[in-house]
Amino acid sequence: MPDPSHAPRRRPTIKDVALAAGVSFKTVSRVTNGEAVGASLKAKVDQAISTLGYRPNLAARRMGGGRSNLISFIVFTMTDATRDNDGFVMALEAGMIARCQALGYSLAIEMVDAGSNAASEMVSVLRGLETDAIILAPPLCDDPSVLAVVQQSGKPLVRYGPAADFGRTPYVTIDDEGAAYELTRYILSHGHTRIGFVEGPEAGSAKARRRGYLRALEEAGVAAEETLIAPGSYTVRSGERAGASLLALAKPPTAIFAANDMMAFGVRRAAEARGLKVPEDLSIAGFDNIDAIVGAWPDLTTIRQPVGDVGAACIDAAVARLDGKPDVGIVLPCELVPGATVIKPRSRS
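RE: above sequence
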């Protein structure tokens, strides 16, 4: 008798997905076409698609619209100075890849140097790229010359970053300002009034996090001091430099909020170099809740942003543009992770 395990498997259909998810065919179709569906229903359909290995039949779409069914995510080239951000970018890419697979698309990842030659490099990349849509993340999506090149190509564009910077272009973002505001209020609630802030580079998300920090101080009646704000570049090394400068002040902060987890880790190094204990002598908070830091510092007080969901939403926005639907702006919520690195400040004699 033939071994059933060796029999050829039938390609799963939309009916199989609907039965496995316990939803209607129409609901599955809406999910695979990137249309609005309730979160719980979408989760059921996505799980069924992943379990069954279902791939939508997009042959008709390809023939009718001349599509490649390829979406390109263009990121800045990693250097030694920016290597700390690898984990974040990889999590973003993972979310995009999973969503592309569910919708029958492929994802191409291209790299461009984020510097003075970014626009000319973008021209070269786009010249040889057969893609249906483009997704840009900071710092590339904050560069007017890069945006001009993409817009001239005529390719649909989705940007990942704060809505205020993008006008009518489709975007996906998190509530950076609201999350930073909430975290600063959390630090204030523990009795801190001298709160240092390590800001990120000149990008929309970094500016929004600074606004949230300043708004929380203002509402609490705490004067914002420029000396308590130090520059950073989202790397451990920049966080260490910023932390050292803040802790060297004649009246140093009792808490430091770093605009990402990597810089928070750098601040901890600076504190330890001065013989300070965290959180007994200095409270520290970060932003992102990325795996690289969670593994090394699991009790860090931080903000968890849904990086994988952000990647998936970028693909949904790109597919919506390709299907001729109205441009969308997607804002995803964040979550405060209390951790254990923010406590009541130690009284100083």
